[in-house]
Amino acid sequence: MKCVHISLCLLLYLLHFTAHGVDMAEMDEPYGPQNPIIIGPDAVTVGIPCSYVCFADCSPNCTYTIGVDDQSAEGNEVQFTLSQWVKSKMVTCTVKNTATGKSFTTRKTLHILEGPVDVVISGPQTLAAGETQRFLCSATCKPSCSYSWVVDGDSVSGSGDEVVFRTPLEATSGTIICKATNTVSKLFVTAVRKLTVTKSYPSMAEKVELLPTLVFASIIHFGIMITI
User: Which residues, in sequence order, are bridge partners of residue 67?
Assistant: First the structure.
């Protein structure tokens, strides 16, 4: 019988293979694994969960083994969280064709980032009205951190890990904020210090030293008044 419609022909072929117990997948020539790839970030940060998935083109089927460094397990996905900084990690995936026994291994080297953590502002414990003071910001960061400052609500640009400013005479308190940002991951953490302002008053010794000057100034002023 001649097939006059493509859908009818396909149906007849399916019925034929089903009746004879033939799997159509067996008609395809086995191939692969081809184009294996590990999908996931190039860099991971200590303390932040991450995951990687492995894929490849295979026929009829492929099995996967994936792991980090010398630890691996069956499956095509791995998840982990680093508890401390190390120089690097390597994700390894091995793909094997179940029909041909051929296998292929692909690897992905990971860069390890850390921080910012332990962000600390160091400097004077109080602000001195009318005086210039210096504060430093530090943090644990890998590979490095950049720093930015906000002093009493105003951004201070281009100061790096150090900020220098003069406290206004009329100020009674001040707030300093340091923002540490990882230069690669762009994760950031801020540290805040709220400080009171101390007023500077002359000591007793300074008052004694100033007394002759004040007396002399008073005499001159009195003399001017008498002359007038």
Answer: 72, 92
